[in-house]
């Protein structure tokens, strides 16, 4: 008798497929990145990220209300810093009245219960466009992590719930954790970009924030895409230093890393579907070469299947609208 097992039985119709489906996507899965700029009444589309915008604080209010009404409960804030405020040490990052600090307060006032995560890295503030302090063409690790710790405290003072260091300096999680504890911010969490690769998929993001490195590349701190074991070492170190959530970035090209980290460690795992991934899908859809909504949903489902607990994605709003 052959075949004894007919796997197609459980695929015969939508009802049976629904019954045996292993993963579902909900609004709880998402973390929504938001780009903030100075000014008033600004909602400007990012050239290489169709239908994604930079917001001034007033239009940010409208956007955050919309996200909340859709059931989205976490945002990740990035700021575009005016050129005249950039320097090598990222001094503006510590300004209690800086754009990030005002953005945090604005979101908090708009939706007190939304989870506010903030990007912690020097690149948007750096005259060199690097994630750390530069000396003689090198990125200086230990001086940088001191600034990152101060920056994290400043975000916590403004009302951030979770700081998200995206810089890939060594030892920064411990230095941030200690600074937060010292200042009494024991409930402020850390989502660490633990396995962040030196990736060409970040291109559109650097357009969005005008934060491309002025010289060289980020390969002395971000990881080599060839490496897998190194991702485990980085992640283990960040957890030991106090990370509450660890992240893999980019997403689609690194699903093997997501799964391996999920299997190995017991903290929540986040994945970042980065700007280039978004841009690729948008561009192919614009040309009529791919079905936008279907590819979008499939890409998000792939993150869940790979084991992601948190998905940072520029598609969050579109996905939830499609689901409801
Ligand atoms: C900066 C930062 C980057 C991204 C998030 N934080 C860019 C980089 O490292 O150059 C990329 C996000 C995206 O491409 O969507 N530290």
UniProtKB/TrEMBL annotation:
Q: What is said about its interaction partners and assembly? A: Homooctamer.
Q: Which family does it belong to?
A: Belongs to the ALAD family.
User: Keyword Metal-binding, does the record have it?
Assistant: yes
Q: Any idea which UniProt keywords this protein has?
A: Heme biosynthesis, Lyase, Magnesium, Metal-binding, Porphyrin biosynthesis
SUPFAM superfamilies membership? Aldolase (SSF51569)
| Gene name of the encoded protein | hemB
* Active site residues per record: 196, 249
Q: Which PANTHER family match?
A: DELTA-AMINOLEVULINIC ACID DEHYDRATASE
* Pfam families for this protein: ALAD
Q: In which pathway does it act?
A: Porphyrin-containing compound metabolism; protoporphyrin-IX biosynthesis; coproporphyrinogen-III from 5-aminolevulinate: step 1/4
Which InterPro entries does UniProt cross-reference here?
Answer: ALAD, ALAD_AS, Aldolase_TIM
Gene Ontology process terms (BP): protoporphyrinogen IX biosynthetic process
- Protein name (database record): Delta-aminolevulinic acid dehydratase
Q: What is its EC number?
A: 4.2.1.24
- Positions of Mg(2+) binding: 234
Mind naming one GO cellular-component term on file for this protein?
Answer: cytosol
**Record GO terms (molecular function):** porphobilinogen synthase activity; zinc ion binding
Which CDD domains does the entry link to?
A: ALAD_PBGS_aspartate_rich (cd04823)
Kindly state which reaction or reactions the protein catalyses. 2 5-aminolevulinate = porphobilinogen + 2 H2O + H(+)
NCBIfam families (UniProt xref): PRK09283.1 (NF006762)
